[in-house]
Design a protein that fits this description.
Layout (H helix, E strand, L loop, with lengths): L2 H22 L1 H11 L2 H8 L2 E4 L8 E6 L2 E7 L2 H9 L22 E5 L10 E4 L4 E4 L4 E3 L5 E3 L11 E5 L2 E4 L1
Antiparallel strand pairs: 1-10, 2-3, 3-4, 5-6, 6-7, 7-8, 9-10
This protein binds FE2/S2 (inorganic) cluster.
The site of FE2/S2 (inorganic) cluster has 13 residues, from loops.
Length: about 170
């Protein structure tokens, strides 16, 4: 093989390699980047996030960033909780009780990753056919518990690990 041919092959390989990484998706690309950060930066990137929830009125929600992803925090009204609990599990593509998506005794607080489980778009709040969220990318409708009700998303929006530090603070992660 001539020198020129070798060069071409190497270029082809580099192209194929970077193309493959691109196709694997965001999750696979983020981790190597964190790996290369210095330990303090890596620690920060993986850190937990504390959120002050004292100013969120019933029926309202906020979005915070945690580990580079949006997290929705919604303070649900008693009507919204009742609506979520009145749904029959048989009517859900990914059957899950509303009670299992919140902390016991803190039923008004829904905390979930604001990422559509179809292909990862960020759904819009207070939209869609089920009084919850709507993902405009391909038309997935989520209810007030963040459960998928209609459209291509296969599962409910994910609940991250979180806890109440006190009555006004939630720690995510
Ligand atoms: S990414 Fe949300 S419906 Fe496709």
């Amino acid at each position: 093989m001539s020198k020129e041919e070798k060069k071409v092959n190497r270029r082809d390989f580099l192209f194929t390699a970077s193309y493959t990484v691109g196709a694997v998706g965001v999750g696979a690309v983020i981790w190597p980047m964190i790996d290369q950060m210095n330990p303090d930066k890596a620690q920060q990137a993986l850190a937990t996030t504390e959120v002050d929830i004292s100013n969120i009125e019933p029926g309202k929600s906020i979005t915070v960033l945690w580990r580079g992803k949006p997290v929705f925090l919604k303070r649900r009204t008693s009507e919204e909780i009742a609506e979520a609990r009145a749904v029959k599990l048989d009517d859900l593509p990914d059957p899950q009780k509303d009670e299992d998506r919140v902390k016991e005794g803190k039923d008004e607080w829904l905390v979930m990753l604001g990422v559509c489980t179809h292909l990862g778009c960020v759904p819009l709040k207070d939209k869609g056919d089920f009084n919850g969220w709507f993902c405009p990318c391909h038309g997935s409708h989520y209810d007030v518990s963040g459960r998928i009700r209609k459209g291509p998303a296969p599962t409910n929006m994910e609940i991250p690990k979180f806890e109440f530090v006190d009555s006004n603070t939630i720690k995510i992660g």
